[in-house]
Design a protein that fits this description.
With about 450 residues, the protein is an all-alpha fold. The protein is built from 18 helices and 2 strands. It has helices at about 10-20, 25-35, 40-70, 75-80, 85-120, 130-140, 145-165, 165-195, 200-205, 215-230, 235-240, 250-280, 290-300, 305-335, 340-360, 375-405, 405-415, 420-450, and strands spanning about 370, 375. The chain has a two-stranded antiparallel ribbon with strand order 1-2. Bound molecules: 4-fluoro-L-phenylalanine.
């Protein structure tokens, strides 16, 4: 079994694939709208603290655990939990479930963005005279079950196709090709946005904090988003780490992924808010922000069709490299646990994801009245996975690596392939401390605060 496990072509391939997983709808679609809804700069500061104190340490732990175990989540816990094996395997199963839930609704938004690439090509975007028109067009599309299910299907099938070809020939190849294109398009849009924001309102919104907007709920959203945006807390990076060479430097790779992800979120925020304020639109538009507002912004720009084509292509690429990472985690878990081939597993899992996504897809149209706790199916899947299951998964990973595994084993794995020196040992110890005490305590505190206990 061990010999048949695939590996990345090299370290850069891993970094691009893992950064491709991290950088996704979370950065371009979600980060701007939750920043818009939660008051801007103050939210961003809390989010950055969550990334630094919790997200980064847990991300390194997750990659490390994967490389150490060379397995998917369930087998990893089965092989290395000395006690309470069943409970730990249930944690692995929880990761698996979280993956299904996230993919179910994530593919829907990814499908919208792919649909908008074609809308841009056919000249439907960029001809609006107001944001109301653009919003109406968006509403018309997302409440059309045929449109939404068609693009949901196309997106699931595209991701399935990449994962079908495996780690090196599928995922790594697509990440190497798409990530640089993605970065170039984004730089272009940032420069354009800044040139629109003549009175600096967009920049002020992003960089001048107003603390009066912050509550515990905001902190929970920032924490959940830190996990979501880094792809941490459900075994995806564990799986990617399991394809990593024993001599690659995990501290470096992990930090690169976090830096890239954060940089890209901030760049997306810059591109979007400078355009939104520059054109006088409302930043607190919610999930429709990039679909409602940006087409109206594009309509007012010279060459707007080209910009909208670029933007939605960017969004689709980002979403694709993320969906394939989640799909790969699901597939790799089943490869470990069953005797089926990768190809069969990909087909069955993709079909299940398509079916699971249907209620989320219809939440914006005919099923918008089907609600639980006043939330649509889409909202429930999003809230449950991002705000509860991912932080819980992150907590489990932190506890497993810092409390269940031996510190010497963990630090040995961390230092593999790097020549040890005093600075490195200090960094390793700080990381272990953050993982063992700071991250778990903060996660638990945030959880307690929403249950109303504190
Ligand atoms: N990090 C991705 C994003 O920001 O869009 C979403 C995601 C991918 C979440 C993979 C979780 C995951 F395991």
């Amino acid at each position: 079994m061990e010999e048949t496990r695939e590996h990345w072509g090299n370290k850069l391939g891993f970094i691009l694939a893992a950064a491709g997983s991290a950088v996704g709808l979370g950065n371009i679609w979600k980060f701007p709208y939750i920043t818009g809804e939660n008051g801007g700069a103050a939210f961003i500061i809390i989010y950055l603290l969550c990334i630094l104190l919790i997200g980064l340490p847990v991300l390194i732990a997750e990659i490390l655990l994967g490389r150490y175990a060379q397995k998917g989540p369930i087998s990893t816990f089965r092989n290395y939990a000395k006690r309470h094996k069943k409970i730990w395997m249930a944690a692995g199963a929880l990761f698996f479930l979280t993956g299904f839930i996230i993919l179910g609704y994530y593919n829907v938004i990814a499908g919208w963005s792919m649909g908008y690439v074609f809308e841009s090509l056919s000249g439907h975007i960029a001809g609006f005279s107001s944001s109301g028109d653009a919003a109406l067009h968006f509403q018309k599309l997302v409440s059309n079950p045929l449109w939404i299910l068609f693009w949901h299907f196309v997106f699931v099938a595209t991701g399935g196709l990449v994962v079908y070809f495996g780690v090196k020939n599928g995922i790594e190849r697509i990440a190497r090709l798409l990530m640089p294109i993605f970065f170039l398009i984004l730089i272009f849009l940032v420069i354009w946005g800044i040139s629109l924001d003549s009175n600096g309102k967009g920049l002020a919104f992003l960089f001048k904090p107003d603390w009066s907007t912050i509550s515990f709920k905001t902190v929970l959203i920032a924490l959940g988003h830190a996990f979501f945006t880094l792809s941490v807390g459900m075994g995806v990076l564990l799986t990617y780490g399991s394809y990593l060479d024993k001599n690659d430097n995990i501290l470096f790779c992990g930090s690169m992924i976090v830096v890239l992800d954060t940089l890209i979120a901030l760049m997306a925020g810059l591109a979007i808010f400078t355009s939104v304020f520059g054109m006088g639109f409302n930043p607190a538009e919610g999930p429709g922000l990039v679909f409602n507002v940006l087409p109206a912004v594009f309509s007012m720009m010279p060459g707007g069709s080209l910009f909208s084509l670029l933007f939605f292509t960017l969004l689709s690429i980002a979403a694709l490299t993320s969906t394939i990472s989640i799909l790969e985690m699901l597939v790799s878990t089943l490869l470990d646990e069953t005797r089926f081939s990768r190809h069969h597993i990909v087909i069955v899992v993709s079909a299940l994801i398509f079916i699971l996504g249907i209620p989320a897809a219809l939440s914006f149209g005919s099923w918008s009245n089907i609600r639980l706790f006043d939330r649509t199916m889409f909202d429930i899947m999003d809230y449950l996975s991002a705000n509860i299951l991912l932080p819980l998964g992150g907590l489990l990973i932190a506890v497993f690596v810092a409390w269940v595994m031996k510190k010497s084993t963990v630090l040995n794995e961390l230092y593999r392939g790097i020549s040890e020196n005093r600075g490195l040992c200090r960094t390793g110890n700080v990381w272990f401390f953050l993982l063992k005490f700071v991250a778990p305590v903060l996660i638990v505190l945030v959880f307690l605060s929403i249950t109303g206990i504190i």
